[in-house]
Amino acid sequence: MIPHTAIPLQACTWQEELSRAVRDPRELFDLLELDTSTLLSSLTAHKGFKLMVPRPYLAKIQKGNINDPLLAQVLPKGAELVETTGYSADPLEEASANPAPGLIHKYYGRVLLIVSPACAVHCRYCFRRHFSYQDNQPGRKQWQQALDYIATDSSISEVIFSGGDPLAANDNHLHWLTTQIAAIAHVKRLRVHTRFPVVIPARINSDCLQWLTETRLKTVVVLHVNHTNELGDDTHRAVMQLKAAGVDVLNQAVLLKGINDDPEALISLSEKLFATGILPYYLHVLDTVQGAAHFAVGRQKIDQLQEHLLARLPGYLVPKLVLEEPGAASKVPL
Ligand code: SF4
After folding, report:
1. Do 72 and 141 lie in a common domain?
2. Same domain, yes or no, for 128 and 66?
3. N or C: which end of the chain has fewer CB within 10 A?
4. Helix and strand element counts for the chain (H, E)
5. Contact 199/193 with Cβ under 8 angstroms?
6. Is residue 169 located within the same domain as residue 251?
7. Residue-number span of the structural domain to which 57 is assigned
8. Is 3 within a domain?
9. What is the Å distance from ligand 1's center to 122 Cα?
């Protein structure tokens, strides 16, 4: 008798996961078995800022629950179409801190590179939802302008890969860019801001770990996790790979109404982050970007939440509560 051999299921590569991400609100409603009474407004909001949900993230959302805290981060809603006074397309005035294509220089000692205009997920509260990515997609020749800018300012000790999501770029490009930066003697650290290990953990593969660890630069990965349910075993494995490779892993969260504006949700997030190998770093007050006002949490509630966190958690698990103000010398602690 011929023995029955189980054929292992082939896991998707990160590129395959990107291409099979859900991009149509109708499919999202269908897959999550959602009540379709709000589908029409989702379709309208989706026209202004497209839906994008990769399937590993979709798997963490509870079916049939329109109030699921992960779904609320990615579902286009009619509320995004309301024009709100005090909210703008560029709340941090980044356009005025853009001295070279793809480079933003806001704070002393560090610069941010828009390495990729693409993301692995579209977060509805994103402060760059209206960012001019067309004007910030340098080719290799134009990257030279950004590299020259860094090389001529010896105060710059840290370069931040941002986006979009920098890990949406391919590893050859990231390797090349990291090598160019490492050749500038006064740069000491490379920081990578990414949501990939949360939404498509397969992105942390051997090619990615190679450029992250081969460099002489000290590397830090800053994740973006807002709710405990985003931290599954898949993310834990990706974080363990990063840490085993000597990369420090931190988290920045955004305080979001209806998602994590609750003491237990924030305490649970800090504890789960630490159990996953990630240190809570920042808790951001929402940036006043047009289309995201329905996520804003009032100042009184923010203060109460902060008091709860300080009273309940050890200091190293309390993220710094900050807001960004255009023109300020740093993030502003509250
Ligand atoms: S830049 Fe970050 S916050 Fe904005 S949509 Fe992309 S992953 Fe989400």
Report:
1. no
2. no
3. N
4. 12, 9
5. no
6. yes
7. 14-81
8. no
9. 6
CA 268 remoteness from chain centre: 20
Site residues for ligand 1, CB cut-off 6 Å: 119, 121-123, 126, 128, 163-165, 195, 224
Express each pLDDT in 227-242 by its tens digit: 999 999 999 999 999 9
Q: How would DSSP label each residue in 176-189?
A: HHHHHHHTSTT--E
Q: For 140-152, write each residue's pLDDT tens digit.
A: 888 999 999 999 9
Residues across the chain = 334
**Residue 5 resides in a domain:** no
CA distance 13 to 99: 36
Q: Are 271 and 308 in contact (CB under 8 A)?
A: no
Q: Are both 36 and 182 inside the same structural domain?
A: no
- Tens-digit pLDDT profile for residues 103-154: 999 999 999 999 999 999 999 999 888 776 666 677 888 899 999 999 999 9
Residue 299 sits in the same domain as residue 257: yes
Mean of pLDDT values over 72-76: 98
In this structure, which residue's CA is closest to atom 1 in ligand 1? 164
Asked whether residue 77 falls in the same domain as residue 109, the answer is: no
Q: 116 CA distance to ligand 1 centroid (A)?
A: 11
Q: Examine the pLDDT at 289 and tell me if it is beyond 80.
A: yes
Cα 205 from Cα 120, distance rounded (Å): 16
**Closest atom of ligand 1 relative to the 120 alpha carbon:** 7
Closest residue to atom 8 of ligand 1, CA basis:
123
Going from the Cα of 12 to the center of ligand 1, the distance in angstroms, rounded, reads: 22
Expressed in angstroms and rounded, the spacing between residue 6 Cα and the centre of ligand 1 is: 39
Same domain, 42 and 107: no
Count of structural domains within the chain: 2
Which of ligand 1's atoms lies nearest the C-alpha of 119?
6
Q: Give the number of other Cβ atoms within 10 Å of residue 265's Cβ.
A: 17
Q: Whose CA is nearest to atom 3 of ligand 1?
A: 126
The rounded Å distance from CA 216 to ligand 1 centre is 28
Pocket test residue of 126, 167, 227 for ligand 1, highest count of atoms within 8 A of CB: 126
Instruction: Report the CATH number at residue 276.
Output: 3.20.20.70
pTM of the model: 0.93
What is the 162 CA–ligand 1 centroid distance (Å)? 9
